[in-house]
Amino acid sequence: MDFAMSVLKENENILASLKCNLKSFIDFTIVDENGVLLVTDTRVLFCKYIGRNLSVVHNFDYKLITSFNLKEDDDKNKYIIFKYNGDRVKITNIQSGDILKVCEVISNKQRVL
Predict the structure, then answer these.
(1) Which of 6, 35, 48, 101 is buried most, with the most CB atoms less than 10 Å from its CB?
(2) How deeply is 83 buried, as exposed, middle or buried, from its count of CB atoms within 10 A (0-12, 13-18, 19+)?
């Protein structure tokens, strides 16, 4: 994941990632983007590709993530849904990555805070 280094802070490490879609209404803005969810040791980032580079679409602080759940739709596709600072966020269309690892890291980070 060398391509992700440009969006990380100094000494920040990626713990898990998903190639997916973000659907939400955050900060009075509708978001429906394909990209990459990067779960780091300090925060969760959703980034989209601009050319061959990543650009941060949204930065999620662990302390503001609540009601975090892994769900499954009628077609057995897994998705993640949570509240971020009161706004609903849905991670869908998961194409690659370890969804269980993502859920484990985020759940553990929530317990620590």
Answers:
(1) 35
(2) middle
- The total number of residues written for the chain in this structure: 113
Q: Which of 113, 11, 7, 10 is nearest to 62 (CA)?
A: 113
pLDDT tens digits for range 28-65: 888 899 999 999 999 999 999 888 888 899 999 999 99
Residue given tokens 């009161």 in the structure block: 86
Q: Is 5 helix (H, G, I), strand (E, B) or coil?
A: helix
Residue where the block lists tokens 């939400």:
24
- Classify the C-alpha dihedral 110-14-100-83 as positive or negative: positive
pTM across the whole model: 0.89
Which residue in 106, 9, 26 sits closest to 63, CA to CA?
A: 106
Residue type, 45: L
Query: pLDDT by residue (tens digit) across 61-103?
Result: 999 999 899 999 998 999 999 999 999 999 999 999 999 999 9
What's the CA gap between 22 and 34, in Å, rounded?
6
